[in-house]
Each structure stands twice: as C-alpha cells, then as structure tokens.
Amino acid sequence: MKKKKSNKKKITLIFVGLILALIIGLGIYAGSFIANKLNKINIEEIDTSNLSTNEDLYEEVSDSLTKTEFDNILTFALFGIDSQSSTVGRSDSIIIASVNLNNKSVKMISIPRDTYVTVPGYGKTKINHAYAYGGASLALKTINENFGLDITEYVSINFTGLIHIINALGGIEMNITKAEMDYINERSYEYGYSITGRAVKKVTSYGNVLLDGEQAITHSRNRTTGEGSDFSRAEHQREVLEKIMNKMVKMGTSKIIDMSDTILKEVKTNINVMNYVGKLTDIVLNSSTFLNNITSIQIPSTEYGKGQMINGGYYFVADEEKMRQDMIETIYKK
After folding, report:
1. Does 162-243 carry CATH code 3.40.630.190?
2. Is residue 95 within 8 Å of 13, Cβ to Cβ?
3. Do 77 and 157 touch, CB atoms closer than 8 A?
4. Distance from C-alpha of 13 to C-alpha of 240, rounded to nearest angstrom
5. Tell me, what DSSP letter sits at residue 227?
6. Residue 281 to residue 312: CA distance in whole angstroms
7. What CATH class is the domain 7-159+261-332?
8. ∠333-330-143 over CA atoms, to 5°?
9. CATH 3.40.630.190 domain residues, the chain
10. Percentage of residues in the chain having pLDDT higher than 70
11. pTM above the 0.85 mark?
C-alpha cells in the first residue's frame, strides 16, 4: 500500500537536492559567493540526446495537467553509489525525486536495487547494474525505458563520501539494537575506518547513541539484522540520511554555508543549477512547506512484485506495465 510516511521515515536522498538548493539560493544574493560554490560541484556532462526519454509523456498525462503545471514538476534521479575504489560502482540506492512546484510537495520514489529490468545493451538484469555498466547515462536510459519517464538530470553521491559529511556534522544520533551495535563494531573498520585512516572507535552502548561517520555508514550497509534483506539495508540507509537532514536543518543557514564545501565536493551531477535559479529561490523560501509535504514510496511495490530466483540469482520481479503506469501516475496524477 502506498501512503504518506511518518516524519521518521520520509527523508531520503532529498537532502542533497534541498541543501544544494539552499546553498545556491542564498548565494544568489552574495555576488561572487555563488560562483565560488558552483566551482565546488563535480559536474559530469552526459549526452542527453541518447537517454530514451518519453517524448509523449505529456500527452499521457494531459487529462490531469496543463502544460504549465506539467513543466512545474521537476524530476531528477538520485543515485547512492556503493564504491570503495576508483571503479564506477553500482547504484545501491535509486530514488526518483519529483519536486512539484504547483502544490509545493516532494515525492521520493525508491526503486529496489534488485528490480528485474531490461538494461539497454545488456538484457535482463538488476537495475542497479546499469550504473556500473555505463554510469549515470545508462542508468537514466534504463529508468526512462522501463518506467516511461523523460529524466535527463541526476545527482549522485558515493556512500563513502557521506562519512565526511557526517563527521563534519559532529556525528548523528541513532537508535540501534544490540545486534546492530555488534555489527557496527565488527564491520566498521572494513566499511569506514580503513577508508578514512582514522583510529577505530567502538560503540559501547545501544539505544540512542551518537555515531560518527564511519560507524553510521557501516550501519547503513547492514542487511543481516532486522528482516535480514536488502530492504532492511535500504531502511537503514534512509534512516541515516534522515538523521543527516534533520541535523542540518537544526544547524541553521550560516553553519550549513560553512560546511557547504564538504557537502558539494561529495556530489556529482549534470544539473546546471543556473537554469533553476527562480525555481530554487521558490524552494528555499518555502523549504518548510516542501519538507512537510514529502511522500516516500517504493515502485514497483510488493502489491505486484515479488522476489524470485532466476539462474541462481535473486531478483525483484514485477509486472512491467503496472510499474510503468504506477510511476507515471504517482508523479503526475496522484
């Protein structure tokens, strides 16, 4: 069942877009400041003419929206990349972020990493393989072809990059179980401290505890406790990202600006933010309204999809036409 989540569950990778909007929106009034911040963003140009965009998308939804209303729904792909080396890495988290300027709302649509789709040039496989095979370009093309969308812009962040952001924040407080504490202590060197080179710290209690970046990222990788599946890991990732966003909001504008360089250098995108100056200003001025109107769901859902073993591998297999219709209706009609 698709429903609006509680505040505890609703914040995901949207923090990247909103913090970016806040930084750039405020920078508009600071002259050379904005140019300096824009130089911190890792821009990756891609060929947008070969992304299999759905040129008939507006016609499919024109019974519900005027062309102006349609154009006021901004849709981006957000990729959380699992890479601990120089390789491209797989997109462990795939979220379609739809920012509706008409009613000042945001829809965060998670696509399960194991979703069984056709990756152009590679046949049927898991959707998260697309990023590893061809980076953001192939990942966008795969999303467009399988879900009937017209997305040409993306934001990606390596999960290891979040370590630096969390440490810059002074850590985040999370509620963990004893089993989760044990997992963090067992795996935090592999997933965190070996990357940063910092001295290993043990978590000495469970319940509400302050985790540093290395510990929090280790927790986000945990799929052995709770339900013990990739859905559990996705839940842990959402919880970590929620805590980051909540702490940033409480920090206030000046402190966010102070640490903006740390945030921006961990982000890769092909978005030309100057094309959205007016819209970003609207988001900044109404940020509390947007944050209070976030709907987080999963497509395809378990209502028409289920896990299956195919040739020895696990896949989340769904009715392809239903997931396409569900995606379009969720963004443009619901």
Report:
1. yes
2. yes
3. no
4. 10
5. T
6. 50
7. alpha beta
8. 125
9. 162-243
10. 77
11. no
